[in-house]
Design brief:
alpha+beta; single chain; 8 strands; binds inosinic acid; 8-stranded mixed beta sheet; globular; 199 residues
């Protein structure tokens, strides 16, 4: 039987405060301390030049792992809009200047009817264990792009991502953390940790 390798601390390869908050909220009840890469002393900023979410997640995780040699996770995420052929996808963070992404997407979809505004958030996590072994897990959250910005919680595309009747920026972070793409990917990460690293 595999020896139980308890993971009580991991480094998240990001300095994005919103992502850290969400990941900490999800992982802290399970007794896992999440350090930002800066707190762990790894201030890298690699080029995210992969062609898909998995490649970019691994690039980020590996650049931090090479410095800290502790368990590291990195996520790469984005919004895929069906009528745009899955765009902005891996380019979600670079689609528009920060703070203008919702307006740009609303403008691009201004002639698209409600039934064709389907979209999904995707999150892929690269988890590298202490020994340098990488595993991917992922999660998705399906919704629609609204017709206007709604709500003031969250970040990025949250004000225009309609999850049922409400946008992601209208629900609390607790509610979002139950259903979001990142929450789904983190649940998958936990299943993986339990299978691989527990008795
Ligand atoms: P990343 O930091 O390279 O993964 O960039 C992901 C980008 O996708 C972010 O900058 C946001 O624009 C968008 N994004 C990812 N997750 C979310 C979310 O939960 N809400 C809103 N926007 C998100």
């Amino acid at each position: 039987m595999m020896k139980k390798m308890k993971i009580d601390k991991l480094v998240m390869a990001t300095n994005n405060k919103n992502k850290l908050r969400e990941v900490r909220e999800i992982l802290s009840p399970l007794g896992i301390e999440v350090l930002s890469q800066r707190e762990a002393g790894a201030d890298t900023n690699p080029d995210e030049n992969g062609s898909n979410f998995s490649e970019n997640a691994y690039i980020k995780a590996k650049s931090v792992y090479d410095i800290v040699k502790l368990p590291v996770m990195a996520d790469d995420s984005g919004l895929c809009v069906d009528c745009l052929g899955g765009k902005p996808g891996v380019y979600s963070a670079r689609y528009a200047p920060e703070g203008q992404e919702c307006e740009k997407l609303l403008d691009e979809l201004k002639d698209i009817p409600e039934s064709e505004r389907t979209a999904k958030f995707v999150c892929v996590i690269s988890f590298i264990d202490e020994n340098g072994e990488n595993n991917f897990v992922s999660g998705e959250c399906h919704g629609k792009i609204g017709f206007e910005k709604r709500g003031s919680n969250g970040f990025g595309y949250d004000p225009i991502f309609m999850y049922g009747e409400k946008s992601f920026a209208e629900i609390s972070s607790e509610e979002k953390n139950k259903v979001s793409h990142r929450a789904e990917a983190l649940k998958a990460l936990y299943r993986l940790l339990n299978e691989r690293y527990c008795d």
